C-alpha cells in the first residue's frame, strides 16, 4: 500500500499473471475477427452518433430512390413495369452513395490504424500483412455490395409480388444473377482504389482528398475529351468509376447505343470487362506491395 498526494491511497489487490482459460481458436480466425470488427467500425458500432452519420448518409442516398419507388408502386396501381431501363438508371443514384462512403469511410478505417499504432498490434497477432489488407478490403467491399444490391433486389421483389416485375421463377433468377453481378462490378474498382490510396497516403484528410480526386476528376476530363474534343470513347478506360458503372449497367443486358461514337456505349463489352479487371488487379497489387514493405509504427 502506498500513499499518494492528497491523502488518497492506492491498493494492489493481486500480483502475478493469470493463465488464459478461454476458448483457443485457429489462427485463421484472426481474419474473421478483424473482418467483423471492421464492419462494426465502418458502421459506427459502439461509437458516438456522429461516427454513424457517414454510413447513414451513404445508405440513405443509395436507398432513398428505391424506397420512394416502392412506396409509389404500392399507391399507384398503374405505376408501370419494372424494366431493366428503370434499374439501369437507378445505378447512377446508387453510385453517389457508394462514392460518398468510399471516400470518407475507407481512410477512417485504414489510416487511423497506422496513425494510432493499432496496425502493429494486428500484425503482432497471427494475422499477416496480406491478411490484414484482405480483411479490411473485404469489409469495405461487403458494405458497398450491400449498398447497391439491397435496394435493387427489394425493387425486384416488390414489383414481382405486384405482378409488374420479372415474370416467373426463371426470369426472377436471371434478374437476381444480373443484380449480383452489377453489385460486384460497382464495388470492386472503387474499393481497390480507396485501399490503394490509403496504402500510399498516411494522413486521413489527405487520403480523403486524393480518393475523391481519383474518382471524380477522371470523369470530368474524359467526358470533356469525348464530347468536346471528339476523342474516341475508349478514352473512358482512364475513368475507373465510369467503367465500373458501365459494367454494372451492362449486367442487365440493355440495348446499347453503339451508333453514337460519343457515348461510352460505343466501347465493346469485352473491353469494359477487361478494363475493370485491369483496374482492380493493378490497384490490389499496389496495396499489397505497399503494405508488404510498410514500416509499422509502434
Keyword list:
single chain, 298 residues, mainly alpha, two-stranded antiparallel ribbon, 70% helix, 1% strand
Task: Outline the structure in words.
The chain has 9 helices and 2 strands. The protein has helices spanning 29-43, 49-75, 84-116, 118-124, 129-161, 168-200, 204-227, 240-250, 269-293, and strands spanning 2-3, 9-10. A two-stranded antiparallel sheet has the order 1-2.
Q: What kind of sheet is the major sheet?
A: 2 strands, antiparallel
Task: Extract low-pLDDT stretches.
Answer: 255-261
Order of helices and strands: EEHHHHHHHHH
* Contiguous helical run count: 9
Structural category is mainly alpha
| Radius of gyration over all CA atoms, rounded | 24 Å
DSSP strand tally: 2
Percent range of helical residues: 55-70%
Overall residue-averaged pLDDT value = 79
How widely separated are the two ends? 33 Å
Q: Roughly what fraction of the amino acids lie in strands?
A: under 5%
Principal-axis shape equals globular
Strand order of the main beta sheet, please?
1-2
Summarize the structure.
By secondary structure, this protein is mainly α. Helices cover 70% and strands 1% of the residues.
Fold topology:
Elements: E1 2-3, E2 9-10, H1 29-43, H2 49-75, H3 84-116, H4 118-124, H5 129-161, H6 168-200, H7 204-227, H8 240-250, H9 269-293
Amino acid at each position: 500500500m502506498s500513499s499518494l498526494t492528497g491523502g488518497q491511497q492506492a491498493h494492489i489487490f493481486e500480483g502475478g499473471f493469470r493463465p488464459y482459460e478461454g476458448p483457443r481458436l485457429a489462427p485463421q480466425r484472426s481474419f474473421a475477427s478483424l473482418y467483423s470488427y471492421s464492419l462494426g467500425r465502418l458502421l459506427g458500432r459502439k461509437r458516438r452518433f456522429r461516427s454513424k452519420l457517414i454510413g447513414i448518409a451513404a445508405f440513405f442516398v443509395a436507398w432513398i430512390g428505391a424506397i420512394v419507388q416502392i412506396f409509389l408502386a404500392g399507391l399507384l396501381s398503374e405505376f408501370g413495369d419494372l424494366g431493366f431501363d428503370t434499374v439501369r438508371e437507378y445505378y447512377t443514384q446508387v453510385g453517389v452513395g457508394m462514392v460518398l462512403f468510399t471516400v470518407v469511410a475507407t481512410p477512417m478505417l485504414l489510416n487511423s490504424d497506422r496513425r494510432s499504432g493499432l496496425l502493429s498490434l494486428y500484425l503482432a497477432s497471427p494475422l499477416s500483412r496480406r491478411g490484414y489488407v484482405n480483411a479490411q478490403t473485404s469489409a469495405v467491399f461487403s458494405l458497398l455490395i450491400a449498398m447497391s444490391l439491397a435496394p435493387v433486389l427489394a425493387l425486384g421483389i416488390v414489383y414481382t409480388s405486384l405482378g409488374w416485375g420479372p415474370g416467373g421463377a426463371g426470369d426472377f433468377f436471371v434478374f437476381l444473377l444480373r443484380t449480383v453481378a452489377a453489385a460486384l462490378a460497382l464495388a470492386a474498382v472503387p474499393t481497390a482504389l480507396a485501399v490503394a490510396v490509403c496504402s500510399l497516403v498516411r494522413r486521413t484528410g489527405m487520403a480523403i482528398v486524393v480518393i475523391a480526386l481519383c474518382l471524380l476528376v477522371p470523369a470530368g476530363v474524359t467526358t470533356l475529351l469525348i464530347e468536346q474534343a471528339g476523342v474516341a470513347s475508349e478514352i473512358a478506360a482512364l475513368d475507373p468509376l465510369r467503367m465500373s458503372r458501365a459494367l454494372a449497367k451492362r449486367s442487365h443486358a440493355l440495348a446499347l447505343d453503339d451508333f453514337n461514337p460519343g457515348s461510352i456505349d460505343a466501347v465493346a463489352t469485352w473491353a469494359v470487362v477487361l478494363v475493370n479487371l485491369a483496374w482492380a488487379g493493378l490497384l490490389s497489387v499496389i496495396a499489397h506491395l505497399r503494405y508488404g514493405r510498410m514500416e509499422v509504427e509502434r
